[in-house]
Amino acid sequence: MARSRSSSSSTTWRYINPAYYLKRPKRLALLFIAFVSVSFVFWDRQTLVREHEEELWKLKEEVLQLQNQLEELKHDDIPVHKTNLTTMNIDDLPIDPIEIQRREKVKDAMIHAWTSYEKYAWGHDELQSKPLKAVFFGQPQSKNGVDSFGGLGATLIDSLDTLYIMGLHEQFQKAREWVVTSLDFNKNYDASVFETTIRVVGGLLSAYDLSGDNVFLEKAKDIADRLLPAWDTPSGIPYNIINLVNGNAHNPGWTGGDSILADSGTEQLEFIALSQRTGDPKYQQKVFVENVIRELNKTFPADGLLPIYINPHKGTTSYSTITFGAMGDSFYEYLLKVWIQGNKTAAVKHYREMWETSMKGLLSLVRRTEPSSFAYISEKIGSSLIDKMDELACFAPGMIALGSSGYGPGESSKFLSLAEELAWTCYNFYQSTPTKLAGENYFFHSGQDMTVGTSWNILRPETVESLFYLWRLTGNKTYQDWGWNIFQAFEKNSRVEAGYVGLKDVSTLIVNTGVKDNMMQSFFLAETLKYLYLLFSPPSLISLDEWVFNTEAHPLRIVSRVAPGEGSKQHKATNIRVRARREGRFGKA
Ligand code: DMJ
């Protein structure tokens, strides 16, 4: 046996000995043929793999194109229009598969936020994820609803139009059922006139404009009627708080009895829209919301900048901060947007004039940092400038870009470049922190560019709002990339098992993410996710020619303006078309 094993192993060895082949050419030829055959098989397989890969890649492309077509079909029932505001026609650009993927991710985020709200806080104002133990990353959270706005279902109403625009119709229908069966404004609650208007009246009107469903308009009337007595002051400047049952109105104690500028001047869009849609002029007529602007116009300063406190009895401003951030911001925003809502006609010319005056004032507040020359909008008290800017003021680049087209060519490009510069600053509010999320406000010290002041982040939308406008108005895809980076930072830091929460401190990382707070703000669903979704959508989806966004990102359809007393005639004209015939990619209405 030993001998036979050794003889078989010597037979094997001789096949790898070159002499075995060299001695006989026939063997050499056979070896060559074997080598060529093996190489051919190997090459053939490689080619097959490559061909399959190419095929797979083509299929993926096709899937993306089909997904896009599907998106278009889903949006078929949304009134859409091709924008003329753009300096270039973005609709003519080829479909970008990256854009579609990003849009889908934002939609996933909305589904996650909405499903969490549905599961844990249905019908409440906001979803809270409260830490059960000591505050630490990853601790268990209680998941419950809180009624920060008096139990009006703020998140649900704020989300209606976002759901609709994203094509989440099942969720929209379920929310609609809640509005029909459970939305009750008869609450003995001292509500904020401003918050209730921008979230609830605005959200309902937008849902009405998109769906044409009368239920939303009826509810909008109900809540607006409860808010109206707030304007019953000697000057017409409203009180900022009102009881929803008895109509008793007052101002918060901490303002010393004054009304707040933004709270008093951010109702015009919604109430004018309500008059247009109901045919009832009472919401917009002079004793109510429009009188505020007339009153303020009487003593409007040369720089168009108003301090944040106004006396509702005398209609005069009090010595206080001038800012495009908290408590000032949307007053300026609405001067521009009411002009747009009114089709830029003579009837609303004074709004544009006041806005342009305020823009002169804004220019006087613009400063630049050292060493990097970031432009920022400072604040002012008396004659002193304060080197501080709120993230809230980051809506301004978008507003300036939106208003820039109303100037002549020279001024227009000057304002557009300022908007772009300010957006770069706001983007850097995010990029300059370890979490890549912005703090609530920033200070600017010589030689240090920007430093975080108040360091929380509560999922605010203002920067992505401006990126959305700049993308729409310039076609520059950089703004999409910036928005995508911000979105990813929200995903990384703020996404939790039950929805999304803010951060307590954007400057501190624990296990690679920021320390969380416990609140999913309703404006995250109303604004942040909606603007991000639209940032990655064709511009014809909610065209800026046909829609104007209220300050809570609720799109209101632009219709011809109603003059007081012309209510019923106007009502016919405002019969909102909900099914537009599609033309082109997303269509023209
Ligand atoms: C929103 O409610 C509105 O955008 C408002 O005008 C300002 N604050 C929040 C979002 O930050």
Plain-language structure description:
The strands form 9 sheets. This protein has a 3-stranded antiparallel sheet, covered by helices on one side. By secondary structure, the protein is mostly helical. The N terminus and C terminus are likely disordered. The chain has one domain: Alpha/alpha barrel (Glycosyltransferase), CATH 1.50.10. The site of 1-deoxymannojirimycin has 10 residues, from helix 12 and helix 18.
Distance between the termini: 94 Å
- Tell me the number of helical segments per DSSP (H or I, 4 or more residues long): 19
CATH fold descriptor: Glycosyltransferase
The count of DSSP E runs of length 2 or more, i.e. the number of strands, is: 21
Q: Which value, in Å, is the CA radius of gyration? A: 30 Å
- Please tell me what the overall shape is: elongated
Given this structure, which CATH class is correct?
Mainly Alpha
What's the helical proportion of residues? 40-55%
Structural class: mainly alpha
> How many domains, in number, for the residues?
1
Topology of this protein?
Blueprint: H1 2-15, H2 18-22, H3 25-74, H4 97-120, E1 126-131, E2 141-146, H5 154-165, H6 169-182, E3 190-192, H7 193-211, H8 214-227, E4 241-243, E5 249-250, E6 259-260, H9 261-264, H10 268-278, H11 289-298, E7 309-310, H12 329-341, H13 349-365, E8 366-368, E9 375-377, E10 379-381, E11 384-386, E12 388-390, H14 396-404, H15 409-431, E13 441-444, E14 450-452, H16 462-474, H17 478-494, E15 495-496, E16 499-500, E17 503-510, E18 513-516, E19 519-520, H18 522-535, E20 547-549, E21 555-557, H19 567-573
Antiparallel strand pairs: 1-2, 1-19, 3-4, 4-5, 6-7, 8-9, 10-11, 12-13, 13-14, 15-16, 17-18, 20-21
Bound molecules: 1-deoxymannojirimycin.
1-deoxymannojirimycin (DMJ) binds next to helix 12 and helix 18.
EC number: 3.2.1.-
Family: Belongs to the glycosyl hydrolase 47 family.
InterPro entries: 6hp_glycosidase-like_sf, Glyco_hydro_47, Glycosyl_Hydrolase_47, Seven-hairpin_glycosidases
